[in-house]
Amino acid sequence: MSILNHQIDVSFEKQVEWWKAVIDSINDGILVIDQEGSVQLINPEYTRITGVTSDILGKPLREYRPGAQLPDTLEDRKCRVGVYRKTRDREYLVDMAPIIVNDKVIGAVSVCKSLTEVHRLSQELKKQNEKLKQLERKMDSMYEAKYTFDQIIGKEAGLKGVVTVAKKVADSSLPILITGESGTGKELFSQAIHNESSRNGRPFIPVNCAAIPAELLESELFGYGEGAFTGAKKGGKAGLFEMANYGTLFLDEIGDMSYDLQAKLLRVLQEKKIRRVGETIDRDIDVRVIAATHRDLQHLVHKNRFREDLFYRLNVIRLQVPSLRERREDIPRLIDSFLQSAYSTYTIEEQTLKFLYTYEWPGNVRELKNVIDYATCIAEGTEITLHDLPESMIKQGAELFQQQPNRSLQGVMEDTERRLIQETINYFGTGIEDKKKAAKSLGISLATLYNKIKKYNIGS
Ligand SMILES: Nc1ncnc2c1ncn2[C@@H]1O[C@H](COP(=O)(O)OP(=O)(O)OP(=O)(O)O)[C@@H](O)[C@H]1O
Protein backbone atom coordinates (compact mmCIF):
# COMPACT_ATOMS: atom_id res chain seq x y z
CA MET A 1 0.00 0.00 0.00
CA SER A 2 1.28 3.40 -0.90
CA ILE A 3 1.67 5.83 1.99
CA LEU A 4 1.68 8.90 -0.23
CA ASN A 5 -0.78 10.59 -2.51
CA HIS A 6 -1.85 7.93 -5.00
CA GLN A 7 -1.51 10.30 -7.91
CA ILE A 8 2.19 10.68 -7.37
CA ASP A 9 4.49 7.86 -8.37
CA VAL A 10 7.04 7.70 -5.60
CA SER A 11 9.82 5.16 -5.25
CA PHE A 12 10.07 2.86 -2.21
CA GLU A 13 13.26 4.66 -1.05
CA LYS A 14 11.43 7.97 -1.16
CA GLN A 15 8.61 6.52 0.93
CA VAL A 16 11.05 5.20 3.55
CA GLU A 17 12.80 8.59 3.64
CA TRP A 18 9.45 10.36 4.05
CA TRP A 19 8.36 8.09 6.93
CA LYS A 20 11.71 8.50 8.68
CA ALA A 21 11.35 12.27 8.46
CA VAL A 22 7.85 11.99 9.95
CA ILE A 23 9.01 9.84 12.85
CA ASP A 24 12.06 12.01 13.50
CA SER A 25 9.91 15.11 13.70
CA ILE A 26 7.55 13.67 16.35
CA ASN A 27 7.92 15.27 19.74
CA ASP A 28 7.70 11.96 21.67
CA GLY A 29 10.44 9.34 21.85
CA ILE A 30 9.74 6.34 19.60
CA LEU A 31 11.41 2.90 19.58
CA VAL A 32 10.23 0.00 17.41
CA ILE A 33 11.24 -3.67 17.68
CA ASP A 34 10.50 -6.50 15.24
CA GLN A 35 8.82 -9.78 16.16
CA GLU A 36 12.19 -11.12 17.32
CA GLY A 37 12.65 -8.28 19.79
CA SER A 38 15.43 -6.54 17.87
CA VAL A 39 15.41 -2.75 17.66
CA GLN A 40 14.47 -1.55 14.19
CA LEU A 41 13.97 2.15 14.75
CA ILE A 42 14.53 4.89 17.26
CA ASN A 43 14.00 8.63 16.76
CA PRO A 44 16.23 11.48 18.09
CA GLU A 45 13.65 12.37 20.75
CA TYR A 46 13.93 8.81 22.16
CA THR A 47 17.69 9.33 22.51
CA ARG A 48 17.15 12.75 24.12
CA ILE A 49 14.64 11.40 26.64
CA THR A 50 16.20 8.02 27.53
CA GLY A 51 19.87 8.47 26.62
CA VAL A 52 19.72 5.32 24.41
CA THR A 53 21.61 5.96 21.15
CA SER A 54 21.30 4.51 17.65
CA ASP A 55 24.03 1.94 18.53
CA ILE A 56 21.15 -0.20 19.69
CA LEU A 57 19.72 -0.54 16.15
CA GLY A 58 19.60 -4.16 14.95
CA LYS A 59 20.33 -5.51 18.46
CA PRO A 60 17.97 -7.36 20.81
CA LEU A 61 16.40 -4.80 23.15
CA ARG A 62 16.59 -7.11 26.22
CA GLU A 63 20.37 -7.38 25.87
CA TYR A 64 20.71 -3.60 26.23
CA ARG A 65 17.85 -3.02 28.59
CA PRO A 66 17.27 -6.14 30.66
CA GLY A 67 14.18 -4.74 32.42
CA ALA A 68 12.46 -3.68 29.18
CA GLN A 69 8.78 -4.67 29.05
CA LEU A 70 8.32 -4.00 25.33
CA PRO A 71 9.25 -7.57 24.24
CA ASP A 72 6.46 -8.85 26.56
CA THR A 73 3.88 -7.16 24.36
CA LEU A 74 5.00 -9.40 21.48
CA GLU A 75 3.81 -12.37 23.50
CA ASP A 76 0.77 -11.17 25.43
CA ARG A 77 -0.38 -8.65 22.75
CA LYS A 78 -1.32 -6.26 25.54
CA CYS A 79 -0.86 -2.51 25.50
CA ARG A 80 0.86 -0.90 28.47
CA VAL A 81 0.09 2.72 29.25
CA GLY A 82 2.00 5.24 31.40
CA VAL A 83 4.77 2.92 32.59
CA TYR A 84 7.02 5.02 34.83
CA ARG A 85 10.79 4.76 34.24
CA LYS A 86 13.49 6.51 36.21
CA THR A 87 17.23 6.45 35.74
CA ARG A 88 19.85 8.48 37.61
CA ASP A 89 19.08 11.76 35.85
CA ARG A 90 16.01 11.05 33.78
CA GLU A 91 12.36 10.38 34.37
CA TYR A 92 9.83 9.44 31.72
CA LEU A 93 6.56 7.68 31.01
CA VAL A 94 6.25 4.95 28.37
CA ASP A 95 3.25 3.66 26.40
CA MET A 96 3.77 0.29 24.65
CA ALA A 97 1.70 -1.51 22.03
CA PRO A 98 2.08 -4.56 19.77
CA ILE A 99 2.06 -3.90 15.97
CA ILE A 100 -0.46 -6.31 14.51
CA VAL A 101 -0.91 -6.94 10.77
CA ASN A 102 -3.45 -9.53 9.59
CA ASP A 103 -3.80 -10.76 13.15
CA LYS A 104 -0.08 -11.44 13.33
CA VAL A 105 2.24 -9.60 15.71
CA ILE A 106 5.03 -8.23 13.55
CA GLY A 107 6.66 -6.03 16.17
CA ALA A 108 6.02 -3.58 19.01
CA VAL A 109 6.32 0.16 19.49
CA SER A 110 7.20 2.16 22.56
CA VAL A 111 6.34 5.87 22.83
CA CYS A 112 7.86 7.84 25.68
CA LYS A 113 7.36 11.31 27.16
CA SER A 114 9.92 13.02 29.35
CA LEU A 115 8.90 13.93 32.90
CA THR A 116 12.07 15.93 33.49
CA GLU A 117 10.52 18.85 31.62
CA VAL A 118 7.19 18.35 33.41
CA HIS A 119 9.05 18.49 36.73
CA ARG A 120 10.90 21.61 35.70
CA LEU A 121 7.63 23.22 34.68
CA SER A 122 5.91 22.18 37.89
CA GLN A 123 8.82 23.62 39.91
CA GLU A 124 8.48 26.83 37.91
CA LEU A 125 4.73 26.82 38.53
CA LYS A 126 5.34 26.34 42.24
CA LYS A 127 7.70 29.34 42.28
CA GLN A 128 5.17 31.47 40.39
CA ASN A 129 2.41 30.39 42.79
CA GLU A 130 4.59 31.39 45.74
CA LYS A 131 5.19 34.79 44.12
CA LEU A 132 1.45 35.15 43.55
CA LYS A 133 0.77 34.34 47.21
CA GLN A 134 3.34 36.92 48.30
CA LEU A 135 1.66 39.50 46.09
CA GLU A 136 -1.74 38.55 47.50
CA ARG A 137 -0.37 38.94 51.03
CA LYS A 138 1.02 42.37 50.07
CA MET A 139 -2.35 43.34 48.56
CA ASP A 140 -4.13 42.18 51.72
CA SER A 141 -1.82 44.27 53.90
CA MET A 142 -2.40 47.24 51.59
CA TYR A 143 -6.10 46.85 52.21
CA GLU A 144 -5.81 46.34 55.92
CA ALA A 145 -7.21 48.76 58.47
CA LYS A 146 -4.48 49.52 61.04
CA TYR A 147 -6.25 51.55 63.66
CA THR A 148 -8.57 50.45 66.44
CA PHE A 149 -10.56 52.56 68.88
CA ASP A 150 -7.81 52.09 71.49
CA GLN A 151 -5.50 54.11 69.28
CA ILE A 152 -7.83 57.09 69.01
CA ILE A 153 -6.31 59.50 71.52
CA GLY A 154 -8.58 61.94 73.27
CA LYS A 155 -10.60 62.27 76.43
CA GLU A 156 -12.54 65.37 75.46
CA ALA A 157 -16.24 64.74 75.93
CA GLY A 158 -17.24 65.47 72.32
CA LEU A 159 -14.67 63.07 70.94
CA LYS A 160 -15.59 60.42 73.49
CA GLY A 161 -19.22 60.79 72.50
CA VAL A 162 -18.29 60.15 68.86
CA VAL A 163 -16.31 57.06 69.89
CA THR A 164 -19.28 55.73 71.90
CA VAL A 165 -21.67 56.10 68.97
CA ALA A 166 -19.11 54.75 66.47
CA LYS A 167 -18.65 51.59 68.55
CA LYS A 168 -22.41 51.10 68.75
CA VAL A 169 -22.95 51.36 65.01
CA ALA A 170 -19.79 49.50 63.99
CA ASP A 171 -21.48 46.17 63.42
CA SER A 172 -24.47 47.42 61.48
CA SER A 173 -24.23 47.44 57.69
CA LEU A 174 -25.77 50.89 57.33
CA PRO A 175 -23.62 53.51 55.61
CA ILE A 176 -21.92 56.05 57.85
CA LEU A 177 -21.12 59.67 57.15
CA ILE A 178 -18.11 61.08 59.01
CA THR A 179 -17.74 64.83 58.93
CA GLY A 180 -15.04 67.04 60.36
CA GLU A 181 -12.24 69.35 59.31
CA SER A 182 -9.25 68.05 57.45
CA GLY A 183 -6.86 66.06 59.66
CA THR A 184 -9.30 65.49 62.52
CA GLY A 185 -9.08 61.71 62.23
CA LYS A 186 -11.98 60.78 59.94
CA GLU A 187 -10.05 57.97 58.27
CA LEU A 188 -8.79 56.84 61.67
CA PHE A 189 -12.40 56.50 62.81
CA SER A 190 -13.43 54.61 59.70
CA GLN A 191 -10.56 52.11 60.17
CA ALA A 192 -11.47 51.66 63.82
CA ILE A 193 -15.12 51.05 62.89
CA HIS A 194 -14.08 48.44 60.32
CA ASN A 195 -11.84 46.68 62.85
CA GLU A 196 -14.55 46.75 65.50
CA SER A 197 -17.09 45.19 63.09
CA SER A 198 -17.46 41.59 62.00
CA ARG A 199 -15.95 42.68 58.68
CA ASN A 200 -12.49 42.89 60.21
CA GLY A 201 -10.04 40.62 58.45
CA ARG A 202 -11.79 41.51 55.18
CA PRO A 203 -10.53 44.32 52.94
CA PHE A 204 -10.70 47.93 54.04
CA ILE A 205 -10.30 50.00 50.88
CA PRO A 206 -9.87 53.76 51.09
CA VAL A 207 -10.64 55.87 48.02
CA ASN A 208 -10.07 59.58 47.81
CA CYS A 209 -12.86 60.79 45.53
CA ALA A 210 -11.17 64.18 45.09
CA ALA A 211 -7.87 62.66 43.95
CA ILE A 212 -9.26 60.61 41.04
CA PRO A 213 -10.47 62.45 37.91
CA ALA A 214 -14.27 62.29 37.70
CA GLU A 215 -14.22 60.43 34.37
CA LEU A 216 -12.04 57.68 35.87
CA LEU A 217 -13.72 57.36 39.24
CA GLU A 218 -16.71 55.45 37.91
CA SER A 219 -14.62 52.66 36.37
CA GLU A 220 -12.34 52.63 39.43
CA LEU A 221 -15.32 52.10 41.71
CA PHE A 222 -17.46 49.80 39.60
CA GLY A 223 -14.90 48.24 37.23
CA TYR A 224 -15.45 47.78 33.52
CA GLY A 225 -16.30 45.06 31.02
CA GLU A 226 -14.15 43.94 28.09
CA GLY A 227 -14.08 46.54 25.31
CA ALA A 228 -15.83 49.15 27.48
CA PHE A 229 -13.49 51.82 26.08
CA THR A 230 -10.26 52.16 24.12
CA GLY A 231 -7.41 50.85 26.20
CA ALA A 232 -9.70 48.72 28.40
CA LYS A 233 -7.99 45.53 29.61
CA LYS A 234 -8.87 42.23 27.93
CA GLY A 235 -11.42 40.44 30.08
CA GLY A 236 -12.38 43.72 31.83
CA LYS A 237 -11.47 44.72 35.35
CA ALA A 238 -13.07 44.44 38.77
CA GLY A 239 -13.67 47.76 40.52
CA LEU A 240 -12.99 48.73 44.13
CA PHE A 241 -16.51 47.75 45.20
CA GLU A 242 -15.89 44.19 44.06
CA MET A 243 -12.45 44.17 45.66
CA ALA A 244 -13.95 45.37 48.93
CA ASN A 245 -16.61 42.64 48.95
CA TYR A 246 -17.52 41.59 52.53
CA GLY A 247 -15.33 44.44 53.75
CA THR A 248 -15.53 48.23 53.93
CA LEU A 249 -15.12 50.90 51.27
CA PHE A 250 -14.05 54.26 52.68
CA LEU A 251 -15.12 57.05 50.32
CA ASP A 252 -13.08 60.03 51.46
CA GLU A 253 -13.99 63.53 50.21
CA ILE A 254 -17.43 62.33 49.10
CA GLY A 255 -18.45 65.98 48.63
CA ASP A 256 -16.17 66.08 45.58
CA MET A 257 -17.92 63.21 43.78
CA SER A 258 -19.62 64.21 40.52
CA TYR A 259 -23.41 64.61 40.56
CA ASP A 260 -23.93 61.77 38.04
CA LEU A 261 -21.76 59.35 39.94
CA GLN A 262 -23.61 60.20 43.15
CA ALA A 263 -26.78 58.75 41.54
CA LYS A 264 -24.94 55.52 40.73
CA LEU A 265 -23.57 55.30 44.26
CA LEU A 266 -27.07 55.74 45.68
CA ARG A 267 -28.28 52.86 43.50
CA VAL A 268 -25.49 50.63 44.86
CA LEU A 269 -26.34 51.55 48.45
CA GLN A 270 -30.01 50.79 47.88
CA GLU A 271 -29.78 47.66 45.75
CA LYS A 272 -26.47 46.21 46.90
CA LYS A 273 -25.58 45.46 43.28
CA ILE A 274 -23.00 46.97 41.01
CA ARG A 275 -22.79 47.09 37.25
CA ARG A 276 -19.39 47.34 35.59
CA VAL A 277 -19.02 50.14 33.02
CA GLY A 278 -20.01 48.79 29.57
CA GLU A 279 -21.80 45.70 30.96
CA THR A 280 -25.50 45.01 31.30
CA ILE A 281 -25.40 42.43 34.08
CA ASP A 282 -25.61 43.30 37.77
CA ARG A 283 -23.31 41.73 40.34
CA ASP A 284 -24.27 41.26 43.99
CA ILE A 285 -21.97 42.87 46.50
CA ASP A 286 -21.86 43.11 50.27
CA VAL A 287 -19.84 46.21 51.09
CA ARG A 288 -20.17 48.60 54.01
CA VAL A 289 -19.73 52.18 52.84
CA ILE A 290 -18.23 54.80 55.12
CA ALA A 291 -18.14 58.24 53.53
CA ALA A 292 -16.25 61.24 54.85
CA THR A 293 -16.03 64.89 54.02
CA HIS A 294 -14.69 68.14 55.41
CA ARG A 295 -17.33 70.01 53.42
CA ASP A 296 -20.77 71.09 54.55
CA LEU A 297 -22.86 68.59 52.57
CA GLN A 298 -26.15 70.26 53.46
CA HIS A 299 -24.84 73.48 51.95
CA LEU A 300 -23.80 71.55 48.82
CA VAL A 301 -27.33 70.09 48.68
CA HIS A 302 -28.79 73.63 48.74
CA LYS A 303 -26.48 74.57 45.90
CA ASN A 304 -27.55 71.48 43.91
CA ARG A 305 -24.03 70.12 43.99
CA PHE A 306 -24.84 67.16 46.19
CA ARG A 307 -27.89 64.94 45.72
CA GLU A 308 -30.40 65.30 48.48
CA ASP A 309 -31.45 61.63 48.26
CA LEU A 310 -27.84 60.47 48.69
CA PHE A 311 -27.30 62.93 51.52
CA TYR A 312 -30.26 61.52 53.46
CA ARG A 313 -29.14 57.98 52.76
CA LEU A 314 -25.65 58.70 54.11
CA ASN A 315 -26.75 61.00 56.91
CA VAL A 316 -28.64 58.27 58.82
CA ILE A 317 -25.54 57.64 60.91
CA ARG A 318 -23.52 60.81 61.13
CA LEU A 319 -20.34 61.16 63.15
CA GLN A 320 -19.04 64.68 63.58
CA VAL A 321 -15.38 64.58 64.64
CA PRO A 322 -14.50 67.71 66.64
CA SER A 323 -11.67 69.92 65.48
CA LEU A 324 -8.52 70.17 67.59
CA ARG A 325 -9.52 73.71 68.55
CA GLU A 326 -12.65 72.30 70.16
CA ARG A 327 -10.64 69.85 72.23
CA ARG A 328 -7.45 71.63 73.14
CA GLU A 329 -7.25 69.66 76.38
CA ASP A 330 -6.26 66.63 74.28
CA ILE A 331 -3.22 68.43 72.84
CA PRO A 332 -0.76 67.34 75.61
CA ARG A 333 -1.93 63.72 75.34
CA LEU A 334 -1.54 63.74 71.58
CA ILE A 335 1.90 65.34 71.80
CA ASP A 336 2.92 62.79 74.39
CA SER A 337 1.81 59.91 72.22
CA PHE A 338 3.54 61.31 69.11
CA LEU A 339 6.73 61.83 71.11
CA GLN A 340 6.50 58.36 72.61
CA SER A 341 5.84 56.54 69.39
CA ALA A 342 9.23 57.37 67.94
CA TYR A 343 11.31 59.61 70.16
CA SER A 344 10.73 58.61 73.75
CA THR A 345 13.60 60.78 75.02
CA TYR A 346 12.06 64.12 74.03
CA THR A 347 10.21 66.50 76.33
CA ILE A 348 8.52 69.79 75.54
CA GLU A 349 9.23 73.18 77.08
CA GLU A 350 6.31 74.72 79.03
CA GLN A 351 6.31 77.89 76.93
CA THR A 352 6.11 75.84 73.73
CA LEU A 353 3.26 73.74 75.09
CA LYS A 354 1.40 76.95 75.90
CA PHE A 355 1.98 78.16 72.37
CA LEU A 356 0.68 74.90 70.94
CA TYR A 357 -2.36 75.25 73.17
CA THR A 358 -3.28 78.61 71.81
CA TYR A 359 -2.44 77.94 68.17
CA GLU A 360 -5.48 77.67 65.85
CA TRP A 361 -4.61 74.30 64.26
CA PRO A 362 -6.15 74.69 60.80
CA GLY A 363 -4.72 71.26 59.91
CA ASN A 364 -5.83 69.65 63.18
CA VAL A 365 -4.21 66.43 64.48
CA ARG A 366 -2.35 65.78 61.23
CA GLU A 367 -0.74 69.21 61.51
CA LEU A 368 0.11 68.62 65.17
CA LYS A 369 1.75 65.29 64.34
CA ASN A 370 3.76 66.85 61.51
CA VAL A 371 4.86 69.72 63.75
CA ILE A 372 6.08 67.31 66.43
CA ASP A 373 7.90 65.16 63.86
CA TYR A 374 9.53 68.30 62.46
CA ALA A 375 10.49 69.66 65.88
CA THR A 376 12.15 66.41 66.97
CA CYS A 377 14.27 66.50 63.81
CA ILE A 378 15.27 70.11 64.33
CA ALA A 379 15.76 70.18 68.12
CA GLU A 380 19.40 70.32 69.20
CA GLY A 381 18.85 68.82 72.63
CA THR A 382 16.08 66.59 73.91
CA GLU A 383 13.73 69.42 74.86
CA ILE A 384 11.50 70.89 72.18
CA THR A 385 11.41 74.69 72.30
CA LEU A 386 9.65 77.41 70.29
CA HIS A 387 12.73 77.63 68.04
CA ASP A 388 12.12 74.08 66.88
CA LEU A 389 8.64 74.79 65.52
CA PRO A 390 8.15 75.55 61.81
CA GLU A 391 8.65 79.24 61.09
CA SER A 392 5.35 79.61 59.23
CA MET A 393 3.52 78.32 62.26
CA ILE A 394 5.24 80.69 64.65
CA LYS A 395 4.28 83.59 62.38
CA GLN A 396 0.62 82.50 62.22
CA GLY A 397 0.38 81.79 65.90
CA ALA A 398 2.43 84.68 67.21
CA GLU A 399 -0.33 87.21 66.72
CA LEU A 400 -2.84 85.29 68.77
CA PHE A 401 -0.22 84.35 71.32
CA GLN A 402 0.79 87.99 71.73
CA GLN A 403 -2.82 88.99 72.32
CA GLN A 404 -2.69 87.01 75.55
CA PRO A 405 0.84 87.64 76.82
CA ASN A 406 -0.10 87.57 80.47
CA ARG A 407 -1.79 84.21 80.44
CA SER A 408 0.10 81.54 82.30
CA LEU A 409 0.03 77.87 81.42
CA GLN A 410 -1.93 77.40 84.63
CA GLY A 411 -4.57 79.80 83.31
CA VAL A 412 -4.84 77.99 80.02
CA MET A 413 -5.09 74.64 81.79
CA GLU A 414 -7.82 75.90 84.09
CA ASP A 415 -9.80 77.29 81.16
CA THR A 416 -9.54 73.96 79.47
CA GLU A 417 -10.55 72.08 82.61
CA ARG A 418 -13.56 74.33 83.11
CA ARG A 419 -14.66 73.82 79.51
CA LEU A 420 -14.12 70.07 79.68
CA ILE A 421 -16.21 69.71 82.83
CA GLN A 422 -18.96 71.92 81.43
CA GLU A 423 -19.07 69.92 78.17
CA THR A 424 -19.12 66.59 80.01
CA ILE A 425 -22.03 67.71 82.15
CA ASN A 426 -23.84 69.02 79.08
CA TYR A 427 -23.30 65.61 77.50
CA PHE A 428 -24.36 63.37 80.39
CA GLY A 429 -26.89 65.63 82.09
CA THR A 430 -27.21 67.23 85.52
CA GLY A 431 -28.85 64.52 87.65
CA ILE A 432 -26.89 62.69 90.33
CA GLU A 433 -26.51 59.54 88.21
CA ASP A 434 -25.49 61.69 85.25
CA LYS A 435 -22.80 63.34 87.36
CA LYS A 436 -21.52 59.92 88.45
CA LYS A 437 -21.19 59.03 84.77
CA ALA A 438 -19.53 62.36 84.01
CA ALA A 439 -17.01 61.86 86.85
CA LYS A 440 -16.27 58.34 85.62
CA SER A 441 -15.75 59.53 82.05
CA LEU A 442 -13.44 62.30 83.29
CA GLY A 443 -11.48 59.82 85.38
CA ILE A 444 -12.10 61.68 88.68
CA SER A 445 -14.14 60.91 91.80
CA LEU A 446 -17.64 62.31 92.26
CA ALA A 447 -16.34 64.42 95.18
CA THR A 448 -13.61 65.95 93.00
CA LEU A 449 -16.19 66.70 90.34
CA TYR A 450 -18.35 68.56 92.86
CA ASN A 451 -15.28 70.50 94.09
CA LYS A 452 -14.41 71.54 90.54
CA ILE A 453 -18.01 72.50 89.76
CA LYS A 454 -17.87 74.75 92.81
CA LYS A 455 -14.39 76.11 91.97
CA TYR A 456 -15.35 77.06 88.43
CA ASN A 457 -18.87 78.04 89.34
CA ILE A 458 -20.24 75.75 86.67
CA GLY A 459 -23.98 75.95 86.30
CA SER A 460 -25.53 72.52 86.80
N1 LIG B 1 -7.57 61.09 67.86
C1 LIG B 1 -6.42 60.80 67.25
N2 LIG B 1 -5.48 60.08 67.89
C2 LIG B 1 -4.30 59.80 67.30
N3 LIG B 1 -3.97 60.17 66.06
C3 LIG B 1 -4.85 60.88 65.38
C4 LIG B 1 -6.13 61.23 65.92
N4 LIG B 1 -6.82 61.93 64.99
C5 LIG B 1 -6.01 62.02 63.92
N5 LIG B 1 -4.84 61.39 64.13
C6 LIG B 1 -3.70 61.30 63.19
O1 LIG B 1 -3.79 62.43 62.36
C7 LIG B 1 -3.51 62.11 61.01
C8 LIG B 1 -4.69 62.46 60.12
O2 LIG B 1 -5.80 61.62 60.42
P1 LIG B 1 -6.83 61.19 59.30
O3 LIG B 1 -6.16 60.93 58.01
O4 LIG B 1 -7.68 60.12 59.88
O5 LIG B 1 -7.66 62.56 59.17
P2 LIG B 1 -8.83 62.90 58.15
O6 LIG B 1 -9.84 63.67 58.93
O7 LIG B 1 -9.30 61.68 57.46
O8 LIG B 1 -8.10 63.86 57.15
P3 LIG B 1 -8.57 64.34 55.66
O9 LIG B 1 -9.87 65.07 55.82
O10 LIG B 1 -7.48 65.27 55.24
O11 LIG B 1 -8.67 63.11 54.84
C9 LIG B 1 -3.17 60.63 61.00
O12 LIG B 1 -1.78 60.50 61.09
C10 LIG B 1 -3.82 60.11 62.24
O13 LIG B 1 -3.16 59.01 62.73
UniProtKB/TrEMBL annotation:
Pfam families: AAA_lid_14, HTH_8, PAS_8, Sigma54_activat. SUPFAM superfamilies: Homeodomain-like, P-loop containing nucleoside triphosphate hydrolases, PYP-like sensor domain (PAS domain). Residues 15-55 form the PAS domain. Residues 115-145 form a coiled coil. The keyword Ribonucleoprotein does not apply. One of its GO terms (molecular function) is sequence-specific DNA binding. Residues 152-377 form the Sigma-54 factor interaction domain. The keyword Chaperone does not apply. Keywords: ATP-binding, Coiled coil, Nucleotide-binding, Transcription, Transcription regulation. PROSITE patterns: PAS, SIGMA54_INTERACT_1, SIGMA54_INTERACT_3, SIGMA54_INTERACT_4. GO terms for biological process: regulation of DNA-templated transcription. This is PAS domain S-box protein. It comes from Peribacillus asahii.
